[in-house]
């Protein structure tokens, strides 16, 4: 799934002409990942096909969409605040009742530049039921470049403006020149590792909570099904899965059930498919 | 939903005003803290949100926030500082004075809407 040099050049020229942003060679992954949802929405099997169509028709609205997809690149903290509220108000407190070893394991499966896993750690710190608990965060992403950024825990002014409550900013961040750096105590709680979701997962143990948000949209149906099945296999039987607001398991992998959690929803492995001591099902 | 924008830059008032109007706010403007207090005093409908610049002539944003917090009848107003001041101690001072949120200029429209979402002040009809 890589974009052709020809398509990349077209997109690069378009973005440069419209926004003065230069997408250097090496940004193919970024272009591909940003354009996959647009390609799918327009009914094209690949980004290349989408770009080919785009370059022939040059519809202004479609061109604008592409430029926007590539230029609004800051990920938010507490992106769509509802899942984090659900985590603090219902998911973490529920799990806290059933874990005598006072340890929780969370996997942020497509962590991008790190805002999501760090937001999860900050949410855990704000959950009274988890005071004194050990919360282990594994954060993975396909891109080593993103992981390197995430590990530094350093964000620009524009990035910290995005969805980060001011109280959290003064509590958990410090200035680093023109940037802001998340405190070491939070950085140290997150382990970053490269992982391709479409390949078999390496041994990583069981997770109580998995964040797999806004990543399934990039995959075709068989891949979505396969990823969800393998996620089940690394989930605790009473684990909670968070998907993006526009994603669902229905019709993809029916072993999950959607459970309301505050203004958000989480997915749990269906009661009738759980086996004692194991989440491996059918 | 009604919002007051307090900023001595007309351009900034227009930018913030447009973002808020797009999600359904009625917008009232003031060019400094003193004028903002006068607007509040003459207002007969409740105000949900005030976006306040820090550095302004006559009365600055921090003083305005402090004044608003002294008045029980204005307790329901959510105050957001919107400023170029980006030092950590400034943020702490604004929060201590009674600001609920702090948005650093320059910002994108999305960033402002995310702050409103955090404050529970994003009209739900538009989504988030």
UniProtKB/TrEMBL annotation, chain A:
Domain of life from the UniProt record: Bacteria
UniProt entry keywords in alphabetical sequence: Methyltransferase, S-adenosyl-L-methionine, Transferase
Domain CheR-type methyltransferase: 1-272
Catalytic activity annotation: L-glutamyl-[protein] + S-adenosyl-L-methionine = [protein]-L-glutamate 5-O-methyl ester + S-adenosyl-L-homocysteine
GO molecular function: protein-glutamate O-methyltransferase activity
Class of enzymatic activity (EC top level): transferase
Protein name as catalogued: protein-glutamate O-methyltransferase
GO biological process, one term: methylation
InterPro entries reported for this sequence: Bact_Chemotaxis_MeTrfase, CheR_C, CheR_MeTrfase, CheR_N, CheR_N_sf, SAM-dependent_MTases_sf
SUPFAM superfamilies: Chemotaxis receptor methyltransferase CheR, N-terminal domain, S-adenosyl-L-methionine-dependent methyltransferases
One family name in Pfam for this protein: CheR
Origin species: Nocardioides soli
Enzyme Commission number: 2.1.1.80
UniProtKB/TrEMBL annotation, chain B:
Pfam assignment, any one: Response_reg
Keyword check for Phosphoprotein: yes
SUPFAM superfamilies per record: CheY-like (SSF52172)
Statement: the UniProt record of this protein carries the keyword Cell membrane: no
Keywords, alphabetical: Phosphoprotein
Domain of life: Bacteria
Database matches in Gene3D superfamilies: 3.40.50.2300
Residues recorded with modification 4-aspartylphosphate: 53
SMART domains in the cross-refs: REC
PROSITE patterns reported in the protein's UniProt record: RESPONSE_REGULATORY
Residue span(s) of domain Response regulatory: 2-120
Name of the protein described by the UniProt record: Two-component system chemotaxis response regulator CheY
């Amino acid at each position: 799934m890589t974009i052709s040099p020809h398509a990349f050049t077209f997109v690069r020229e378009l973005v440069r002409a419209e926004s003065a942003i230069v997408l250097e060679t090496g940004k193919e992954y970024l272009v591909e990942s940003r354009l996959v949802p647009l390609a799918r929405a327009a009914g094209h099997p690949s980004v290349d096909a989408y770009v080919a169509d785009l370059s022939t028709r040059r519809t202004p609205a479609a061109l604008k969409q592409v430029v926007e997809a590539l230029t609004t690149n800051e990920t938010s903290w507490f992106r769509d605040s509802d899942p984090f509220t659900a985590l603090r108000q219902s998911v973490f407190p529920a799990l806290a009742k059933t874990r005598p070893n006072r340890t929780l394991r969370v996997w942020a499966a497509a962590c991008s530049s790190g805002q999501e896993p760090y937001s999860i750690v900050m949410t855990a710190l704000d959950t009274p039921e988890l005071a004194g608990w050990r919360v282990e965060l594994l954060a993975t992403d396909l891109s080593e470049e993103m992981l390197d950024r995430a590990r530094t825990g350093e964000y620009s002014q524009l990035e910290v403006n995005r969805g980060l409550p001011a109280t959290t900013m003064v509590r958990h961040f410090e200035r680093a020149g023109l940037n802001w750096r998340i405190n070491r105590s939070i950085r140290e709680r997150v382990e970053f590792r490269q992982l391709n979701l479409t390949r078999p997962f390496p041994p990583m143990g069981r997770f109580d909570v998995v964040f797999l948000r806004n990543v399934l949209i990039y995959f075709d149906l068989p891949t979505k099904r396969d990823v969800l099945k393998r996620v089940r296999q690394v989930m605790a039987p009473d684990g909670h899965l968070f998907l993006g607001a526009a994603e669902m398991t229905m019709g993809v992998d029916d072993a999950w059930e959607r459970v309301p959690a505050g203004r958000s929803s989480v997915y749990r492995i269906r009661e009738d498919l759980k086996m004692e001591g194991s989440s491996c099902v059918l | 939903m009604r919002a007051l924008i307090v900023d001595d830059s007309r351009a900034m008032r227009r930018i913030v005003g447009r973002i808020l109007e797009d999600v359904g706010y009625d917008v009232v403007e003031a060019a400094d803290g003193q004028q903002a207090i006068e607007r509040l005093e003459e207002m007969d409908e409740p105000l949900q949100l005030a976006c306040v610049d820090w550095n302004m002539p006559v009365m600055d944003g921090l003083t305005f926030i402090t004044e608003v917090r002294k008045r029980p009848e204005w307790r329901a107003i959510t105050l957001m500082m919107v400023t170029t001041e980006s030092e950590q101690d400034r943020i702490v001072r604004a929060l201590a004075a009674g600001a609920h949120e702090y948005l650093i200029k320059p910002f994108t429209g999305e960033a402002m809407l995310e702050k409103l979402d955090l404050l529970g002040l994003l009209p739900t009809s538009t989504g988030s």
